Amino acid sequence: MLRSVKSTVQGLKLIGFCATTAASAANTVAFGKGDGTFTNATADNQIDFVPKVGFARTPVVVGTAGDNIAVGGTAFVAADPSATSVSLTTVNGSNAADVGSVCGLIVAPTSRTLNTLARKDNGLFTVFSTKKAPRIIAAQITTGGSTVTVGKNQVTNVTGGTGISTITFKNAFASPPVVIGTPEIATEGGNCRIDSITASTCVVNTFNAANTATSMPINLLIYGSDVRDSDSHSIVGRAVQTQMRLPRLIAAHISYSAGTPSFVVGGGELTVADTGTGAPTLTFRDAFPTAKVPVVVASSSDATNRWCTVVTSATGVAIEVTGSTGTPGDPTDVHVIILGSDDPTEF
Predict the structure, then answer these.
(1) What's the angle, vertex CA 236, arms to CA 235 and CA 239, rounded to 5?
(2) Are strands 12-21 and 128-129 parallel, antiparallel or unpaired?
(3) Which of 160, 163, 253, 295 has minimal Cβ neighbours within 10 Å of its Cβ?
(4) How far apart are CA 66 and CA 47, in angstroms?
(5) Phi first, then psi: what are they for 294, rounded to 5°?
(6) Whole-model pTM over 0.90
(7) 35-75 pLDDT, tens digit each
(8) Measured between alpha carbons, how far is 174 from 290 in angstroms, rounded to an integer?
(9) What span, in angstroms and rounded, lies between the C-alpha atoms of 52 and 47?
C-alpha cells in the first residue's frame, strides 16, 4: 500500500534528475529531462538546471556522484540555488574537477509562504511531483554486507565486497530512478558513489577519507516513477507516494557566517546549533518516534569543504562537513533532505 508523503510546509514540489557532467556536446539526461533544460555551459564538471516552471522561493538541493567519478569523489551544490536555476558540480577524491554521472534531488516551494503552517499531529500538506505515479523509497543500509536498518519492506541488500552493495527494489520502478546517498557515520570524510542504476537495482560504493573502499552505513533516497513516460511534466503535479506509514518530509538549507550556522530554509521545523568546526546539529521541532530514525541526505556548497556525513536519531541529526582529506571545515552552505515515519510501528 502506498501513502502520500506529507510536510508541515504547504506547496512543496519534488524534482529529481540524473545527468552527466561532461563537455556540453556530450551531456545526457537519464531522468528529469521533462522538468527543464540541462547544460554544461559553466564548466564541464558542472550540470546547470533551469526548471521549466520557476520556483516560488529558493529550493533545497542534494546531489550524489555517480558512474565514472573517481573513487572518493563527490557532488556538491555549485552555488546558491535560486528560483530559476540549480547547479551541481562533481570532483574526484582530491577535490579536482571530474566528469561523470550525477543525481540531484530538489525540494522546491511553489508557495511564497515562508512560515511552517502545520504540526505533525494537526494536519500536514501533501508533497507533489511533476511526474506521473511518483514514488520515493527511504532506506538505510550497510555496504559490504546484507544489513537493512531502515526500509526492509522496500529494499534488499546484497554485498559485492568491501564497501560495495547491490540494492534491489522490492517493487521495481518503470525506469531507472534517481538515487541520493549520504554516509551515516561519525568518523570524518566518508563518501558514497552510485555506480549504476536500473529500474530494479542500484550499486552503491562507499569510501573513507583516504579514498579507500570501506564498508559503512548509508542513507538512501530513491525517487522514480511507476509509469514509463516519467519525463512528462505536469504543472499541477501528482502526490509523491511511499510505502512507509505516516511519511513526513523536511528540507533545510543552512548558511554559515563567521562560523555561525543559520537557516535560509527550514527554520520553522528545525533548530540548529554549532557543535564544532563543520558540525551543525539539527533538532527536529517534532521528533520522530523513538528508535524510528528518519533517513537523511546532505550536500555541501563550498570551495573546499564538500564532503558530508550524518548521524541521525529520532530527535535530530548531527552533520559533519570535511575537506577531501577528512579534516572538518565550516561550509558556506549545507542542504539537507529528511524523510521519516511518524508511525512508531514502521520498519
Answers:
(1) 120
(2) parallel
(3) 160
(4) 13
(5) -80, 170
(6) yes
(7) 989 988 788 899 999 998 889 889 999 999 998 999 999 99
(8) 34
(9) 16
